[in-house]
Amino acid sequence: MNIYLFIIIFSLAGACLLGIFSRQLNRKALSPELPAEFSATFDADDYRKSQDYTKAGIGFENISSSVSTLITILFIVLGGFNAVDLWANGFGYGEILTGLIFYAGLAVLSDIVSLPFSLYSTFVIEEKFGFNKTTLKTYFMDKLKGYLLGGIIGGAILGGVLLFFNAAGSLAWLWCWIFTVLITLGVQYIAPTWILPLFNKFTPLEDGELKEKIELFAADNGFELSGIFMIDGSKRSTKANAFFTGFGKKKRIALFDTLINNLSTDEIVAVLAHEIGHSKLGHIRKMMTMSIINTGVIFLLMSFFLGNKELFAAFGMQNISVHAGLIFFALLYTPVSIVLSIFSNIRSRKHEFEADAFAAETTRTPEALVEALKKLSVSNLANLTPHPFYVWLEYSHPPVLKRIEALRAFNIN
Predict the structure, then answer these.
(1) Binding site for Zn(2+): what residues are annotated?
(2) Which of 149, 245, 258 is nearest to 199 (CA)?
(3) What is the pLDDT of residues 366-412, one digit of tens each?
(4) Which of 61, 275, 310, 405 is catalytic?
(5) Does the pTM of the predicted model rise above 0.85?
(6) How many angstroms separate the CA atoms of 383 and 29, rounded?
(7) pLDDT per residue as tens digits for the range 331-355
(8) Active-site residue, 275 included
(9) pLDDT number for residue 270
(10) 255 beta partners
């Protein structure tokens, strides 16, 4: 067997089996006894419902990942990439347009495979447990907007990458890196004003106690804001959340209406203090820096494989092209990507503890964040007893009980 084909199939199948194994461990770790910390927050019905929700998610993920992995492997072995490439070349355009047609064809096929699972997740599982508020109209309008944005932004990035790799010689990877980073930063800068409002309505937070306390906290901690907004998260789900977007003078705080309705003023401020902590402690800058470095390394490694005949032979390709090489390298990179994601999650969990500590220290009320975490766990039907291996492999945030323990141990002098 072609060595590249073996590595890719082994990696795809291994990743799928690893996911199933970790999720089954997570299922077995579910405890019928409610943790004492949540005795005043969860009632018996809600706790049982949270475990049923976790079980439903595990079963769904096991099936969906198995089916998608099997289809991907069959697509590779049966020459699917070659068929799409021949179809794209049949239009008679140059390398860049042919490459974009190739990616568009793969995107459509991928969406056809994932659509039934996405619909089932949204309109069956999320509906069953009382989360879904999305209508079919909203769902498909979101997909249409996603297609348009993907075509514009993704097309620009992919078109530029194809152009550089076809015309810039040995330093093409460097130009691709610079170009991709600039586009990505530009998108993040305009996202709060031009992109996110395409999916959610951003309404300036009304004057009152909540707005005053948020502005006071931000000012006291040297955090400049361009606005505080409420977004209509309840349009799609009952789950609550809060975040801030953008950078520089475009930083915005966004509060889901579901969060405002479920938490007290002090609890909301504590949640936002946590999010602001990520910025003040340099977490966002560090993660962005690591992402930029990782992107550069990927482009450098990619440049060594784009013309590799053995790699193209693994996919039964009749033509060697940059556009196909990008996809094949991404598949070959799968095991490295898994390892990097584990280390990224470890770093992310550390950052979450640090942001919690920042919120506790700056608000002087760690108990407010504790209560917020408890309420969010109930409203989101969170798994309170995840298996350590699953946490290590998949969690970007520490388990809620670990966060509460750390907050309770925090000393306010």
Answers:
(1) 274, 278, 352
(2) 149
(3) 999 999 999 999 999 999 999 999 999 999 999 999 999 999 887 66
(4) 275
(5) yes
(6) 10
(7) 999 999 999 999 999 999 999 999 9
(8) yes
(9) 94
(10) 230, 242
Domains of the chain: 3-110+304-409 (no CATH), 202-262 (3.30.2010.10)
Q: What is the mean pLDDT of residues 222-242?
A: 85
Instruction: Name residues whose C-beta falls within 8 Å of residue 4's C-beta, 6 or more positions apart in sequence.
Output: 308, 310, 311, 313, 314, 328, 332
266 catalytic? Reply is: no
* Identified catalytic residue from 310, 356, 361, 405: 356
Buried b (16+ CB within 10 A) or exposed e, 372-406: bbbbbbbbbbbbbbbbeebbebbbeebbbbbbbeb
Q: What count of Cα atoms within 13 Å lies in the side-chain half-sphere of residue 378?
A: 21
Q: Which residue has the higher pLDDT, 308 or 412?
A: 308
Give the annotated binding-site residues: 274, 278, 352
Which secondary-structure segment (H or E) carries 275?
helix 265-280
